[in-house]
Design brief:
By secondary structure, the protein is of the alpha/beta class. The protein is about 45% helix and about 10% strand.
């Protein structure tokens, strides 16, 4: 081995001479892999790999499998962090060593919340997001809960849809009593449009203006454009962005009509977006949001000093599942990573048990430590806008921004706020239907629910929310089936050796378990008589599913179906696509929900 001192030049030679490849070479190498896995035909052009590997968002935007210089060659310059159009960040550097780790509090038990606040602040949390008033932390307990908090160091943002003015006054009194300047990021969080969209309040712009007048002398934000209101209803990324622009523009107009200058109005507004486990769309969405808002305020006459969008990202509620809830830790980790990389000023990781009820100390600890690990151990926040310059991310950012701007134009052109919200609801409903079909066909799998479910898991118990948010959870239809498990299992008629039937047996068992249907497997068999004996021994229902390979289906599949019907089977399913006289077949791409509902009907017939 050569001495260490000579390693440097040797590496330089390797890098300069061995790592430059053409796009044609990439296409050829990739096509070879796809042909080997039978995802690409032998006679298909190598260039078809782009279409095979690209994904399409619910907004019809293509996410390329590989970024190339051509993708970003003609895009608008994103500028520098902290400079218009703020695509690369609202500030040149992060205020903290990373992003603001913001914990969520909603427990009506004031004593518990007070303990949780202190614990979180002592263990890595920088700021507090408090759901106050009806269904949340009592407003009259805010002073007690915040008594040990240094509000000049830890920002407090409120969410009080039913009593926004009362909550704002309570927080203002706390700040005044402490005699300090509130920490940057503090917000009264009033969102009359979002509250109305959720059905949790009325559009009271007079109260919003009063809250703004209360906030301005304290140097805090007054209004929050909470785009998670539409995200929780099932909105796409473009719809979430467009809604946030329309709502933000409405708040600018409202404050302007009340006598605030455009700079003053812009400085009183912050934004909240959802971060999902689709990391690249989330990164691009947050970058696009800053660019889009800069354009809105630019057209409104806001100066650069007030143009940077203050972003709070929250891990998505709809993406989380109540079954196999520990998988939510993985989802929220990816989402938090995307939010941090995307440049959010503050990030809230929701506890993994959020779908089950009020979080417990363990889940709160995991939530706050997720950001701590990403910042301190993974060093995700060491670089500002690490995705900047990525051809794929820059193109996706631009595509999202352009599509959102077009939809914002449609929303803004409506005749009234009611008409605008109706338009948004209509678009969101269409997205919900499209997503539901993709989930039903398992083109958008949900681990632990629609894929690899644990049918016999023991779910952790949690105290219920006093007034839970209405959230369109992506796993909702599968979870509704799981909530009432089928009382009778399906018999898996395995044909041949373990090697012959395992692949389709696993597929069928997972599919049935996703709908709350258990299975009994025959085991290795050598023929019709073996399967019939196993069927008799199992004493299962009259619903049977054949699992084997194509050779077995051809050789004795029809004979087995006939024999099973003679033995009492009333409904026969075949895993695969062979014609053996079964009542139905299942394979990749099947409408899983429709199939599961029909099977459950057969089991109770």
């Amino acid at each position: 081995m050569p001495p260490m001192a000579s390693d440097g030049p040797a590496v330089e030679v390797a890098l300069s001479e061995g790592l430059e490849h053409t796009q044609d070479e990439w296409e050829k190498a990739t096509a070879a892999v796809l042909r080997k896995s039978r995802r690409l035909a032998d006679d298909a052009p190598d260039a078809d790999v782009w279409a095979k590997l690209a994904t399409t968002t619910l907004d019809g935007i293509s996410v390329t499998p590989l970024g190339t210089p051509a993708l970003s060659a003609e895009l608008t310059d994103g500028g520098l962090p902290g400079q218009a159009p703020f695509t690369r960040g609202a500030t040149a550097t992060r205020e903290l060593d990373g992003w603001d780790v913001r914990a969520w509090f909603t427990d009506p038990d004031a004593e518990r919340t007070a303990r949780d606040v202190v614990t979180d602040l002592e263990n890595g949390v920088n700021s507090l997001w408090i759901s106050a008033g009806t269904g949340g932390v009592p407003i009259d307990a805010l002073a007690t809960i915040l008594e040990p908090v240094f509000v000049d160091l830890a920002a407090v943002t409120l969410d009080a849809p039913f009593e926004p003015l009362e909550a704002a006054r309570a927080l203002a009194a706390v700040i005044a009593d402490k005699g300090v300047d509130a920490a940057p990021g503090t917000s009264f969080g009033a969102d009359p449009v979002g509250a109305a969209f959720r059905g949790r309040g009325v559009v009271d712009f007079e109260a919003a203006v009063e809250i703004a007048r209360l906030a301005q002398p304290l140097g805090v934000r007054a209004l929050t454009v909470d785009a998670t209101a539409v995200h929780d209803a099932g909105a796409s990324d473009v719809q979430e962005l467009a809604y946030s622009l329309a709502t933000g523009a409405q708040y600018l107009r409202t404050l302007g009509e009340a006598g605030f200058s455009v700079d003053e109005a812009a400085a009183l507004i912050d934004f909240r977006y959802a971060a999902t486990d689709e990391q690249f769309p989330t990164i691009a969405k947050l970058r696009a949001a800053r660019r889009l808002w800069n354009r809105v305020v630019e057209l409104s006459g806001v100066t650069t000093a007030a143009a940077g969008q203050m972003q709070h990202a929250v891990t998505s509620r709809p993406m989380m599942a109540s079954y196999d809830p520990y998988v939510n830790m993985l989802r929220t980790t990816v989402a938090a990573f995307a939010a941090g990389v995307g440049g959010a000023a503050a990030v809230t990781v929701l506890p993994f048990d959020e779908p089950l009820g009020l979080p417990e100390p363990f889940s709160r600890r995991i939530a706050r430590n997720t950001s701590s690990l990403l910042i301190s151990e993974s060093h995700v926040a060491e670089v500002t806008d690490p995705a900047g310059g990525s051809h794929a991310v820059e193109k996706l950012t631009d595509d999202l921004a352009r599509a959102a701007w077009a939809l914002f134009g449609e929303i803004d052109a409506t005749s009234s706020l009611e008409a605008a919200l109706d338009l948004v609801r209509t678009r969101v409903e269409a997205t919900v239907s499209e997503r539901a079909l993709a989930i039903a066909r398992r083109r958008r799998p949900i681990t632990g629910v629609s894929e690899f479910p644990n049918l016999h898991e023991d779910l952790p118990e949690r105290r219920p929310y006093d007034r839970p948010l209405e959230v369109h959870r992506y796993a909702g239809e599968f979870e509704a089936l799981r909530a009432t498990p089928a009382s009778t299992p399906v018999f898996l008629a395995s044909m041949g050796t373990i090697a012959a039937f395992t692949a389709r047996s696993t597929f069928a068992a997972n599919l049935l378990a996703a709908g709350g249907v258990d299975t009994v497997v025959a085991g290795p068999t050598e023929g019709v008589d073996d399967v019939l004996a196993a069927h008799r021994e199992a004493g299962t229902s009259a619903v049977v599913c054949l699992v084997g390979n194509d050779v077995a289906y051809q050789e004795w599949g029809s004979e087995l179906v006939t024999a099973l019907r003679g033995a009492g089977a009333t409904y026969v399913v075949l895993a695969g696509k062979a014609d053996v006289g079964a009542d139905t077949t299942i394979a990749m791409g099947v409408d899983a929900l429709a199939f599961l509902r029909s099977i459950r009907e057969e089991l109770t017939a």
